[in-house]
């Protein structure tokens, strides 16, 4: 389960409907061209929180079918509707996903005991492994080392997707729980996360920049930090230009330049303008 995972985008048509052909092309691109170690399905990058339960199931099914056992698959099933999380977790488990993942329940100010119950209930009902998805700047849920320790008491919680710039906490988690998988969630911080000792990384820009990400990770493992820094600098220049042009729209536009039918973003994300398309083409030509 270690390595570089793309947080998979979802291809939609102009009306916001799932574009199955496009999703299959995204999966094939990640396997054949980017050569990632795995795919993280229905996370933030997949515009998950704007999807119905049935749409999420359809995406899980399409990705599993297209991947055909060639890479590891993690199913993000988190929701503030616990029944939906369980339903999706059982569905992904039946499909044969390698692990579940669930974002910490958000919006309401849930207590840690409520958060712990959420994870333990999903695990009890699905009997699958779980990777915590910790992304405080979007959820507002900050957890400390003791909190992670409480969660990790459940042996089926096998790790965490740590999308948090707190590198002291990141290092403490890695040091304190060496038997748990720790994935970095910030693409722009892959180098320092790799130096600290993460087991892998999960990121949206890996859909286009996964080869560089894999190389950064490999260079760090070989102690070649100067070369890794150079690649991270190129990567961060790329990320800056993508962010300035519109994150998900621009990644999809770059994928179109690769010949992948990445489709549109779901509203209320805005449709790409001519200027965004022009900028994306320039980014593609500059970095790929």
Layout of strands and helices, then pairs:
Elements: E1 3-7, H1 20-34, E2 38-41, H2 53-67, E3 72-76, H3 82-95, E4 99-103, H4 112-126, E5 130-134, H5 136-139, H6 145-151, E6 157-162, H7 167-176, E7 181-184, H8 190-196, E8 200-203, H9 206-221, H10 225-245, H11 247-257, H12 274-287
Parallel strand pairs: 1-2, 1-8, 2-3, 3-4, 4-5, 5-6, 6-7, 7-8
CATH topology: TIM Barrel
Name of the CATH class: Alpha Beta
Identify the strand order in the major beta sheet: 1-2-3-4-5-6-7-8
Sketch the topology as an H/E string, one letter per element: EHEHEHEHEHHEHEHEHHHH
Distance between the termini: 28 Å
Strand coverage percent:
5-15%
Q: What's the Cα radius of gyration?
A: 18 Å
Give the overall average pLDDT: 97
Residues in helices, as a percent range: 40-55%
Walk me through the structure.
It contains 12 helices and 8 strands. The protein has 288 residues and is α/β, with parallel strands linked by helices. The chain has one domain: Aldolase class I (TIM Barrel, Alpha-Beta Barrel), CATH 3.20.20.70. Strands 1-2-3-4-5-6-7-8 form an 8-stranded parallel beta barrel, surrounded by 6 helices. Helix 2 packs parallel to helix 3, helix 3 runs parallel beside helix 4 and helix 9 packs antiparallel against helix 10. The two termini are 28 Å apart. The model has no long low-confidence stretch (mean pLDDT 97).
């Amino acid at each position: 389960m270690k390595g570089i995972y793309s947080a998979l985008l979802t291809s939609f048509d102009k009306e916001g409907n799932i574009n199955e052909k496009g999703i299959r092309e995204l999966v094939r691109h990640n396997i054949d061209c980017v050569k990632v170690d795995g795919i993280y399905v229905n996370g933030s990058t997949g515009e998950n929180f704007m999807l119905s339960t049935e749409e999420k199931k359809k995406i899980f099914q399409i990705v599993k079918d297209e991947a055909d056992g060639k890479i590891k698959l993690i199913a993000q099933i988190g929701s503030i509707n616990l029944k939906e999380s369980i339903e999706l977790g059982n569905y992904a488990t039946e499909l044969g996903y390698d692990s579940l993942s669930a974002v910490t329940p958000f919006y309401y100010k849930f207590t840690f005991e409520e958060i712990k119950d959420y994870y333990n209930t999903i695990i009890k009902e699905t009997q699958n492994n779980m990777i915590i998805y910790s992304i405080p700047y979007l959820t507002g849920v900050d957890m400390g080392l003791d909190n992670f320790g409480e969660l990790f008491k459940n042996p089926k919680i096998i790790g965490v997707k740590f999308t948090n710039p707190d590198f002291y906490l990141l290092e403490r988690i890695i040091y304190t729980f060496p038997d748990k998988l720790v994935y970095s969630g910030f693409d722009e911080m892959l180098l320092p996360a790799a130096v600290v000792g993460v087991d892998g990384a999960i990121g949206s820009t890996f859909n286009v920049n996964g080869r560089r990400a894999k190389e950064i990770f490999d260079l760090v493992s070989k102690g070649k930090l100067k070369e890794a820094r150079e690649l991270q600098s190129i990567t961060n220049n790329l990320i800056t230009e993508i962010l300035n042009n519109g994150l998900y729209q621009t990644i999809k536009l770059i994928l179109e330049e690769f010949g992948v039918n990445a489709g549109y973003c779901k509203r209320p994300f805005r449709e790409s303008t001519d200027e965004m398309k022009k900028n994306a083409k320039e980014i593609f030509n500059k970095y790929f």
